[in-house]
Amino acid sequence: MPDPVLSDYWQYNFPPFFTIQPNLETRKAQLEAWSSLILNHCKNNRIFKIDLKKALTEPPFQNASISRGLTLDGLITIFENMKEKGVADWSDKNKSSVFIYWNTPEAWANLIYHWVYNVGYINNVCTLYEIVSGDETVKEPFHGLDYEVLKKSLQVLEKQGKATIISLDDNGGVKFLG
């Protein structure tokens, strides 16, 4: 089934969109369009992390209908630009995968803390599993959140003095503070 987000971008069916443009003004507009497309695609499909090698072979980075796709260098250029804007971050030094922040860790932290406050979990301990996979969070926007993004979000709360991250076996946990 085609991604409905892709049909919102006329550029997606324009072959030059898949080649990083040399003209700086054109490139700036192209990178903005790619950033918007990627963020919307990831939000729509609840994608938190992208493996670059895998991405080269699938939409939105590959458009089979026009036989075009980004190169690895093109992907890196786009993600570097997104990183500069704070909406992406490399997951490793080799730049083999990237976190996509259609919600920043700070935004996830606010959503999580709002939920904690509303359900009365202040001064209680929750496992990471309970936060992203528990029955109580099924209707919350952070349900299903990638564990690494969750940890970054909890680190934000820890820096704000609203949480203490603790280690509980392999799962890990957090105590929320008032």
Automatic annotation (TrEMBL):
<comment type="similarity">
    <text>Belongs to the VPS25 family.</text>
</comment>
<keyword id="KW-0653">Protein transport</keyword>
<dbReference type="GO" id="GO:0016236">
    <property type="term" value="P:macroautophagy"/>
</dbReference>
<dbReference type="GO" id="GO:0005198">
    <property type="term" value="F:structural molecule activity"/>
</dbReference>
<dbReference type="InterPro" id="IPR036390">
    <property type="entry name" value="WH_DNA-bd_sf"/>
</dbReference>
<keyword id="KW-0963">Cytoplasm</keyword>
<protein>
    <recommendedName>
        <fullName>Vacuolar protein-sorting-associated protein 25</fullName>
    </recommendedName>
</protein>
<dbReference type="GO" id="GO:0042803">
    <property type="term" value="F:protein homodimerization activity"/>
</dbReference>
<dbReference type="InterPro" id="IPR014041">
    <property type="entry name" value="ESCRT-II_cplx_Vps25-sub_N"/>
</dbReference>
<dbReference type="GO" id="GO:0043328">
    <property type="term" value="P:protein transport to vacuole involved in ubiquitin-dependent protein catabolic process via the multivesicular body sorting pathway"/>
</dbReference>
<dbReference type="Pfam" id="PF05871">
    <property type="entry name" value="ESCRT-II"/>
</dbReference>
<dbReference type="GO" id="GO:0000814">
    <property type="term" value="C:ESCRT II complex"/>
</dbReference>
<keyword id="KW-0813">Transport</keyword>
<dbReference type="InterPro" id="IPR036388">
    <property type="entry name" value="WH-like_DNA-bd_sf"/>
</dbReference>
<dbReference type="InterPro" id="IPR008570">
    <property type="entry name" value="ESCRT-II_cplx_Vps25-sub"/>
</dbReference>
